[in-house]
Amino acid sequence: MERSFIFAARKVLDLFSRPNGPKPQKLRLLASDSQGNGKKLGGITSTLLPLTLATGLCIMSSPQVGLRYLSHKQYSRRKGLESLSIIMDHVDEFSAAPVIAWLMYTRETLRYLHYNVRTTPNVNILEKCGRQKLEVLTLAHNTIMGVEPSYQKFPCLRTLSLSYVSISALDLSLLLTACPKIEVLTLDSLDIFMSDSQATMELTSYSLKDIYVEAISLDKFILEADSLVKLHLKDCALEVFELIGKGMLRFLKIDDVSVIHLDIGENGENLEIVDVSNFTVMWAKFYHMISRSSKLRKLRLWDVVFDNEDEIVDIETISSCFPLLSHLSLSYDLREAAIHYGLQGCFVLENVIVLELGWTTISDLFSVWVSGLLERCPHLRKLVLHGIVSETKTREECRMLANFTSSVVRLTRKYLDVEVEFEYE
């Protein structure tokens, strides 16, 4: 079957390669059995090749069909190839020779490269594709070492994504330096190793606008990025994180991050969205960090835990410091102090039109909290209530849930213009 498929694929490609042949935008070649189902070839997962003849090519799954039958001779005819994806997640090892041939024949015009293949020996992507027109590089399951920014430079690269890549902190810093126009950076599940004399990872970029960091553990991470607009940290373990910039930050998201010292410096003045979830908060320090964000429009504190049991989220302070706030989402362990002191005063959340409130453990305090916040949102349009309802409920839990439902029904009668939604887990 494999041999006949390769022969047929060659015939099709030869047809489309002729000057007067048809020029489709995309061609899919799928090896299948007599019933039209994808079939394994030599123990390898079924082969799917989406192929954009004009500008892009994607090779997936099977090395037997994926690279062997598409020889460099055939692709030397396609000098305008701009997008190349080599994705072989389920192949442990693949010969480096055909991969190098692909890169050598396409690198002069290549703008988008998605590279996820383990080769023997390892292919140095920086060496093969540096100093070219590459604008987007997505690299996964590889090792990067010995970066030389003066030689392996990416003058046009705007987006860099590294996933499950082994790299030293120094090489990562040098790689970022080699990308003078980079705007978007993704670092996901990196194996970062430090030298004996280096305990801090320092990254510097004056063009970077968007960074996403996931599943990374470091003692100290310092990011200097004057143009940074969006910062998203997820599932990271950091002792210290410091951001040095010029106040361009507009989006801050922290999700399931363990950090002892978090410092965004003077970058909070222009924040418009702050989204914090699954995070231990020292409210005084956190509030001080974002207190100058007078342009804040969305604040989300979800499943947060306070470092000090006596700390509360001061809603009155939120209303006075963030006058443009239109979307407020709160979910944390409620105590009587949080209700009493958090809602004291005659403040009004004038511009809040969407209010999301959640609980992890239902209690009578939640109804009081919802009612109190509703009274302080005169222009509210939508109320979303999130809750966790266990499969096995005690009689007391059933009673509280019933009381809460009744109280919400009464509130809906009072606030007829407010749309109410329930989202239970």
How is this structure best summarized?
With 425 residues, this protein is an alpha/beta fold. Helices cover 24% and strands 32% of the residues. Strand 22 (327-332), helix 9 (336-342) and strand 23 form a beta-alpha-beta unit.
The N- and C-terminal alpha carbons lie at a distance of 49 Å
Strand content: 25-35%
Q: Which structural category fits the helices and strands?
A: alpha/beta
Give the tally of β-strands.
25
How large, in whole angstroms, is the Cα Rg?
27 Å
The stretches of 5 or more residues where confidence is low (pLDDT under 50) are 1-13, 22-54, 61-78
Q: What helical percentage do the residues reach?
A: 10-25%
**Largest beta sheet, briefly?**
19 strands, mixed
Morphology call: elongated
> How many helices in DSSP terms?
11
Domain F-box/LRR-repeat protein 15/At3g58940/PEG3-like LRR: 133-233
InterPro entries: LRR_dom_sf (IPR032675), LRR_FXL15/At3g58940/PEG3-like (IPR055411)
Protein name: F-box/LRR-repeat protein 15/At3g58940/PEG3-like LRR domain-containing protein
Describe this structure in words.
This protein has 425 residues and is an alpha/beta fold. The chain has a domain at 286-425. The protein contains eleven helices and 25 strands. The protein has helices at 2-17, 63-66, 72-75, 96-106, 125-129, 169-177, 283-290, 315-321, 336-342, 364-375, 395-414, and strands at residues 27-30, 48-52, 56-60, 83-87, 94-95, 112-116, 119-120, 136-143, 159-168, 184-188, 191-193, 200-204, 210-214, 217-224, 230-234, 237-244, 251-255, 258-263, 273-277, 280-281, 298-306, 327-332, 354-358, 382-387, 419-424. The protein has a 19-stranded mixed beta sheet that branches. It has a four-stranded parallel beta sheet with strand order 12-14-16-18. Helix 6 (169-177) links the parallel strand 9 (159-168) and strand 10. Helix 10 (364-375) runs parallel beside helix 11 (395-414). Mean pLDDT is 80; it is low at 1-13, 22-54 and 61-78. Pfam families: LRR_At5g56370. Residues 133-233 form the F-box/LRR-repeat protein 15/At3g58940/PEG3-like LRR domain. This is F-box/LRR-repeat protein 15/At3g58940/PEG3-like LRR domain-containing protein.
